[in-house]
């Protein structure tokens, strides 16, 4: 693969890293009950009903946040080749948020005995809508431009919804249950980082990374 | 009863029970959650965009090739909503055929309707056999004679096989000879599908036109008498090419104003470039009229090309040229022909772009 500027391809191999936590203050909204009457097979898969938590996490931390470096990092980064799996299981999507590199495959898998369709609605990238009528079906697609969160959903089961962000570099990650994160292989420098959450606005923070060391940054959301 | 007789009785929409069973299985796994048990949409399904009801027998006019392409490529490929997913290679060809055959069973009387697969692309000179719900704007320009004719045609269906039609010819400007503009002889007509065979790709219709003396005789816009025109129209698919023909006799009520004329037109459409529904189709036609009384025989060769202007393929334009072949003596002014049609049976003008 050639690069536009003729610069050599660099793997993300800086010696530093960025760590921290994404936190929230305030009372999260009640989880929403999901009504699965449209598809009896989804009801069977969720005998006790299902719900969706918009704000989720432990110990004040916020999970399902994608944290990324916003500052331009020197070098050109070849697309990661390992596909990210979006699984459809029990008529729910896992994971709830997906970070992808430009050109990195998104592997969509149907693990249910029912029909799903995967319908991302990007603005910058080209959208698609693939139907997967049978269990075990897999489809791979790629996005070719960086873009902040856009929804991906199933039109058959409107409650199925995840969010995808696409980056032109590999410096991004998803927060764990407790809101903690770690972006490895960061070259030394001063960075602005960005946090994206499906329903909250984008927040930024600043951090300095020294060679071989971790730059630490926390970002706190205040819920209204 | 022999198997053959059974198959004939069963008709096109339910041609094969094994296929229908397979189609039903595909439908119930992949379509029923949106399109519903009865093909009219699943009432439990939450969506602002509701699919067409396959139980509506008007959908028999949709060609199976279009429906298959919608299933494989998704709604947006044909200008439909993006809620209709693309199933890509999820179904092998036999399952695709089967599910479309199953969709046809939602209209209980589908066998009585000629299927949309027999709705061959309209030609510039040769009339169609298929009953249409269509508005067409046609024009013919003969530059050497400074003549322009326009015709607005409205066609609509009644029941499975009947179509009525109104034609309003107008001359928008005076000709070289100085005659004025105005409305010509308005034509009212009815057409009935006499026979069709989807497996053999053929359709035969017959009908009667009446050209009413609404055009001014003085301005040479009308004949001054009612002219009755019984006709036959036939279409035959041959692989991906199509042969169409229309034969008619003009029978004037008052033979001192006009004379009996036999008219014929045959056309051959070449294989489409792109999809049959939306792609380019070139066609050659021969159209003529023979008048026994004054032994005149006029004949014109027409060469034309047509193309859908939108993704749904229900707005189509065609342009072409006519080259007079007969009479062999005298001037042979070239003519330009064009039409713009909107198949309103398929949806509003602005959908499907
Ligand atoms: Cu689904």
Brief digest:
The complex is a heterodimer of chains A (224) and B (353). Chain A is an all-beta fold and 224 residues long.
- Radius of gyration of chain A using CA atoms only: 19 Å
Q: What is the CATH domain class of chain A?
A: Mainly Beta
Largest interface: A-B, 20 and 23 residues
Instruction: Say which CATH homologous superfamily of chain A is assigned.
Output: Cupredoxins -  blue copper proteins
Number of contiguous helices of chain A: 1
List low-confidence stretches of chain B. Answer: 1-10
Ends of chain B: how far apart? Answer: 49 Å
Q: What is the chain-wise order of helices and strands of chain A?
A: EEHEEEEEEEEEEEEEEEEE
Q: State which percent range the strand residues of chain A make up.
A: 35-45%
How would you name the oligomeric state of the polypeptide chains in this document? heterodimer
Question: What is the CATH architecture annotation of the largest domain in chain B?
Answer: Beta Barrel
Give unreliable regions of chain A as ranges.
1-10
Number of strands of chain B: 13
The bound ligands are: copper (II) ion
CATH architecture classification name of chain A: Sandwich
Under the CATH scheme, which class of the largest domain in chain B?
Answer: Mainly Beta
Q: Estimate what percentage of residues of chain B fall within beta strands.
A: 35-45%
- Total individual domains of chain A: 1
Biggest β-sheet: strands ordered side by side in the sheet of chain B: 1-2-3-5-6-7-8-9-10-11-12-13
The CATH topology assignment of the largest domain in chain B is: Porin
CATH superfamily of the largest domain in chain B: monomeric porin ompg
């Amino acid at each position: 693969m050639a690069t536009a500027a003729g610069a050599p391809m660099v793997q993300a191999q800086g010696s530093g890293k960025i760590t921290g936590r994404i936190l929230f203050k305030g009372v999260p909204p009640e989880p929403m009950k999901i009504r699965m009457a449209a598809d009896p097979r989804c009801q069977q898969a969720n005998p006790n009903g299902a719900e969706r938590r918009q704000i989720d996490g432990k110990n004040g931390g916020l999970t399902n946040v994608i944290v990324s470096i916003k500052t331009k990092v020197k070098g050109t980064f070849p697309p990661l080749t390992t596909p990210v799996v979006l699984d459809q299981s029990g008529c729910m999507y896992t994971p709830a948020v997906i970070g992808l590199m430009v050109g990195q495959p998104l592997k969509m898998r149907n693990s249910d005995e029912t029909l799903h369709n995967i319908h991302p609605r990007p603005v910058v990238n080209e959208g698609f809508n693939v139907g997967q009528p049978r269990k075990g079906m897999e489809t791979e697609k790629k996005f070719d431009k960086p873009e902040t969160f856009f929804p991906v959903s199933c039109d058959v089961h409107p409650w199925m919804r995840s969010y995808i962000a696409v980056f032109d570099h590999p410096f991004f990650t998803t927060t764990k249950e407790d809101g903690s994160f770690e972006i490895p292989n960061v070259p030394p420098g001063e960075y602005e980082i960005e946090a994206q959450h499906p329903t909250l606005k984008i927040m930024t923070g600043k951090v300095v990374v020294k060679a071989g060391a971790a730059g630490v940054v926390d970002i706190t959301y205040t819920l209204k | 009863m022999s198997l053959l007789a059974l198959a004939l009785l069963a008709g096109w929409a339910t041609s094969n029970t094994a296929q229908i069973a397979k189609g039903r299985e595909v439908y119930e796994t992949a379509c029923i959650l949106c399109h519903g048990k009865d093909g009219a949409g699943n009432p439990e399904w939450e969506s602002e965009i509701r699919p067409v009801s396959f139980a509506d027998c008007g959908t028999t006019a949709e060609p199976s090739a279009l429906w298959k392409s919608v299933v494989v490529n998704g709604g947006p490929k044909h200008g439909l909503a993006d809620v209709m997913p693309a199933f890509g290679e999820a179904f092998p060809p036999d399952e695709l055929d089967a599910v479309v055959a199953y969709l046809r069973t939602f209209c209980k009387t589908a066998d009585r309707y000629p299927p949309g697969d027999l709705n061959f692309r309209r030609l510039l000179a040769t009339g169609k056999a298929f009953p249409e719900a269509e508005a067409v704007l046609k024009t013919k320009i003969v530059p050497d004679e400074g003549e322009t004719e326009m015709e607005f045609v409205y066609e609509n269906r009644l029941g499975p096989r009947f179509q009525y039609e109104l034609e309003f010819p107008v001359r928008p400007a005076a000709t070289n000879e100085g005659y004025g503009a105005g409305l010509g002889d308005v034509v009212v007509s009815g057409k009935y599908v006499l026979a069709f065979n989807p497996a053999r790709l053929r359709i035969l219709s017959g009908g009667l036109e009446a050209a009413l003396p609404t055009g001014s005789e003085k301005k040479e816009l009308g004949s001054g008498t009612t002219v009755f025109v019984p006709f036959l129209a036939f279409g035959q698919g041959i692989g991906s090419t199509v042969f169409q023909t229309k034969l008619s006799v003009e029978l004037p009520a008052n033979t001192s104003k006009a004379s009996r004329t036999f008219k014929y037109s045959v056309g051959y459409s070449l294989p489409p470039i792109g999809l049959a529904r939306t792609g380019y189709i070139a066609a050659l036609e021969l159209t003529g009229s023979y008048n026994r009384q004054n032994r005149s025989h006029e004949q014109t060769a027409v060469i034309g090309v047509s193309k859908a202007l939108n993704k749904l393929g229900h707005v189509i334009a065609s342009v072409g040229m006519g080259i007079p072949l007969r009479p062999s003596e005298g001037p042979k002014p070239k003519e330009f022909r064009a039409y713009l049609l909107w198949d309103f049976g398929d949806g509003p003008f602005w959908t499907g772009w």
